[in-house]
Amino acid sequence: MSxxxxxxxxxxxxxxxxxTDARFPVRRIFCVxxxxxxxxxxxxxxxxxxxxxxxxxxxxxxxxSGTDVPYPPxxxxxxxxIELVVAIGRGxxxxxxxxALGHVFGYAVGNDLTRRDLQAVARKAGAPWDMAKGFDASAxxxxxxxxxxxxxxxxxxxxxxxxxxxxxxxxxxDMIWSVPxxxxxxxxxxxxxxxxxxxxxxxxxxGPLVAGDTVNGGIDGVATLEHRIVAA
Length: 232
Ligand code: MN
What we know:
Layout (H helix, E strand, L loop, with lengths): L13 E3 L6 E3 L3 E5 L3 H6 L10 E5 L4 E3 L3 E3 L7 E3 L1 E7 L15 E8 L2 E2 H10 L4 H4 L5 E3 L3 E2 H4 L6 E6 L2 E7 L7 H8 L10 E3 L7 E2 L5 E6 L3 E8 L2
Parallel strand pairs: 3-15, 5-11, 6-18
Antiparallel strand pairs: 1-2, 3-4, 7-10, 7-16, 8-9, 8-15, 9-12, 13-14, 13-17, 17-18
């Protein structure tokens, strides 16, 4: 007997997986902020004094590569942030750094879309980042590349171009916290579960997007992402 709901049940968000028709179900989206030294500096911080932080987006913020993203309301400064995304395949809490990669199903590349103007107000006020980070369609994500196919991702060029012009380019090996360290640290705050996605932070070069822009991004050997920004 299937459960009855008093309002229409929400669709279960999911992401395509390279090499199979089966999909990755999204449970939660965790994000790391301030995880590349040059990006911390461009945001006016000191990477030695401000360690990486965690925030979240709702699971239904995911949009697949190739989707048009409407320019969101309540901002005049929408920014791109290209990031390595970790897909958790096995859950746990208090995960040891040495065992962390055993919890990874695969890797993708994502764009942590950000209302930079609202984030600046929130930072100044010591207020939550939710409306700066967790809005509708704020998490374009590429198909997931299984670790079983490509191994684990510790290095590799990460890049983002807008209308063909390179905006961000770095190496994921430059991250302050590595993937195993992120998983270990995050799992001390929350029990991780299969279906969790972790956006691992963006390198320097973040900047504005406007309606009509075409965004391309990728991580060499992992995946590529493309989406447009369209008028609301
Ligand atoms: Mn980010």
